[in-house]
Write a structure and sequence with these properties.
Elements: H1 17-26, H2 46-59, H3 77-83, E1 92-96, E2 99-100, E3 104-106, E4 116-117, H4 119-132, E5 138-142, H5 148-153, E6 159-160, E7 175-176, E8 181-183, E9 185-190, E10 206-210, H6 214-225, E11 233-238, H7 241-250, E12 255-259, H8 260-269, E13 273-276, E14 283-285, E15 288-289, H9 294-309, H10 315-322, H11 324-327
Parallel strand pairs: 1-5, 1-6, 10-11, 10-12
Antiparallel strand pairs: 2-3, 3-4, 6-15, 7-15, 8-14, 9-12, 9-13
Helix pairs in contact: 4-9
Length: 345
């Protein structure tokens, strides 16, 4: 198998079978908290901004994580709409996962409410606090992997904060913030499996991925390019990455391909599985929003700047609380690089 090129792509994950049952029982509860708004950039029309972004994305798509707007604390049309929501509806509406352990999941030990917790959830609260002055002003909506982009485009959510990888295909449909986490695709399989990693040991094996994930896109492209054995079965796709773990545990799949950060948490939950080999891509998570919500994108980017500077209650504190147990100390493998922004003036 010829040397791999790094490819900025992938997404997805789940929890253990026990958590699957818990999550299924509590899935009927939809958490709520606020959001709103869209704004135009001073001295520049939305149409012009969208055109510039599209042209730049097309010519520099090898670095999709850089296709975002510079930070700003100004309110625009999108943010004003969010702030103008009345009464109980004055909340930020955010698409999240409720099955990804330590990222966005319902903790069955947190009491009757089984509130959402995790690294992504901390970031959502920070965004709500900045925009609406209340970290709890959020309406959480559990969104399957394959519904993240449609939920944004249809206006069902203001944004998606769900371990969502920034990639070239997605930036055609939604706008992303600057990266807030760095990761890479990994193979997860039973410890007893002969699979050694993303290599020829996957020949004849059944790999499960989530529909609409960058994991599947990567496998499909690599199989066409001959970088993945032709006999590897990649047809097993599911709406949520959690379903892949269940299939693995039931013996209906031989391996799962998902983000290494999520896979590490999953392996910590289920001692019968482990990460195989090294990560075979480099990619970044971002907050996804509507393509024309320039003011919201800029505001989230400003929030991320402040969040990373806040050592007491920001990015590092959240990492220490949720991820250090499975990923170890903060390193360049997880901390996003200094953001680079798209120039629009």
């Amino acid at each position: 198998m010829r040397a791999r090129r790094l490819r900025a792509s992938l997404k997805g994950w789940g929890g253990v079978a026990a958590m699957a049952v818990v999550c299924a029982l509590v899935a009927v509860f939809a958490l709520s908290v606020p959001l709103s708004g869209t704004r135009t950039v001073e001295g520049q029309s939305v149409a012009q901004s969208a055109r510039v972004k599209a042209e730049k994305a097309e010519e520099d798509c090898e670095a999709p994580e850089k296709q975002t707007l510079s930070p700003s604390s100004a309110d625009g049309d999108t943010i004003r709409k969010i702030k103008n929501r009345q009464g109980d509806k004055r909340k930020l509406i955010v698409g999240v996962d409720q099955n990804s352990y330590r990222w966005g999941y319902r903790n069955p030990n947190s009491g009757k409410t089984a509130e959402l917790e995790g690294f992504d959830i901390d970031l959502v609260h920070r965004i709500a606090e900045d925009i609406l002055g209340d970290p709890k002003a959020v309406q959480f909506k559990a969104i399957p992997t394959n519904q993240r982009i449609p939920a944004i485009q249809d206006g069902r959510v203001d944004m998606v904060v769900r371990t969502m990888t920034i990639n070239c295909e997605r930036i055609k449909d939604v706008a992303f913030s600057a990266p807030y986490f760095k990761t890479g695709q990994h193979v997860l399989a039973p410890k007893s499996s002969p699979i050694k990693g993303y290599d020829d040991t996957l020949a004849g094996k059944r790999i499960c991925t989530a529909t609409g994930s960058t994991a599947y896109s990567t496998l499909e492209a690599d199989q066409k390019d001959g970088e993945l054995p032709a006999t590897t079965d990649i047809s097993k796709t599911v709406p949520n990455q959690l379903d892949c773990l269940v299939r693995l545990q039931l013996g209906e799949a031989d391996a799962v391909v998902t983000d290494g950060a999520l896979a590490a948490s999953q392996a910590a939950q289920d001692p019968t599985v482990e990460l195989k080999g090294d990560a075979f891509t480099a990619e970044y998570y971002g907050v996804a929003m509507k393509e024309d919500a320039d003011d919201l994108v800029r505001r989230v980017n400003q929030i991320l700047v402040d969040y990373r500077k806040d050592t007491a209650n920001g990015w590092q504190a959240s990492y220490g609380r949720w991820l250090s147990a499975t990923l170890g100390k903060v390193s360049e493998k997880s901390e996003p690089p200094a953001p680079q922004y798209l120039r629009t003036t």
